[in-house]
User: Fold this.
Amino acid sequence: MSDGVWKSGRGFGQRTDSSDHQAHERRRWPRTLRQAPPHAPAPPVLDPLHFSTRALEQAHQFDAWQAYVASLVDIRLPEGTSIDGGFPADHTAWHLGEILFVQQRTPAHSYVRSSARLRASPVDHWYLSIPRSGHSWTEVNGEVAEGAPGQVEFRSLGQPFSGRALDCETVLIYMPRDLFADKPAVLDGANNSILSGNLATLLTDYVGSVEATLDSLSAQDLPRVVQTVRDMVVACLSAVAGQQPASENQANPGLMERARRHIHRNLHSPDLTPDALSRALGISRTRLYQLFEPSGGVLHYIRRRRLIAAHAALSDPENDQRILDIAQSVGFESAANFSRAFSHEFGYSPREARNAVATSAPTQAEPASEQKATRSFDEWLRTLAP
Assistant:
């Protein structure tokens, strides 16, 4: 056998030629492996909200579920189905600070997010729907998107929609619009989109890996998870937009998105009025009112954004501003008006919101989501913001 040929009986990787000597010389020097210094793993921080109708009497299960999701949609049973047959549903929500991660299982039903529902609870987040089993059909402005395993739906809570679903197990991710404030042109026109292709598959796989580790994520993990989900959503939507003909709406930020950004930048200003907003957008007051009609009106929308900003400040354990200073920083000139509006919106006073954080006495670093004075999934939705 010629030199350089592997020879059996000598062990894998040993030669019959002079390379044996070279290998022996190399092994005289000990190998040094680079290893990260040992450190204790960071403690998990997420405390999920669990809700299930299964422990209730069957005749009461459907009403309990409707009450739980009332801020989002009105639901109905399929035709010919009685509430006496039960509605076993499960819902687990995880607050990651800037997004909400939800695992949900429901029997067949139909759902409607109407203009009236928007006025009553004008949450306008984007959300992803990733079915693990079952099918759904959702209609927005006459266009229907079909949800099925392997599909990723992208939809806005800021516009009415309706649909129906079979028995489904679904992962839902709720994301505030401010999370995409630098990408309005990408998101404009994306409502009720079906994301597909390799990027959507990568997104689905990543969401699955996050789902498997939710109960062990540390405070340091959460911003990275949020940023990764956000970036992957933008990449998927950019790919979808790149396959469509360019349009005026795609070339410029949407009018509603421009209005939201202007309001966000000027929350502190007492001059943030419908007239000022109309001038900034270059539209008439009539057009402005039509734009915000599904959200309960422009003044209602501005007030809610101010209250949400104040809630975030009051729930920040590192913010030692007086309540009056916080109220003024978001555009309220009167402490009494602020307290009334805050209590009406959240069901408790600004002082109670602050005291809830002060009395929680965390023993370890916690994410912002765990330090908020939140009491329900509905409140998590209403106060969700970066």
About this structure: DSSP finds 16 helices and twelve strands in the chain. The chain has two domains: 49-248, 254-383. Residues 49-248 form a domain with the Jelly Rolls fold (CATH 2.60.120.10).
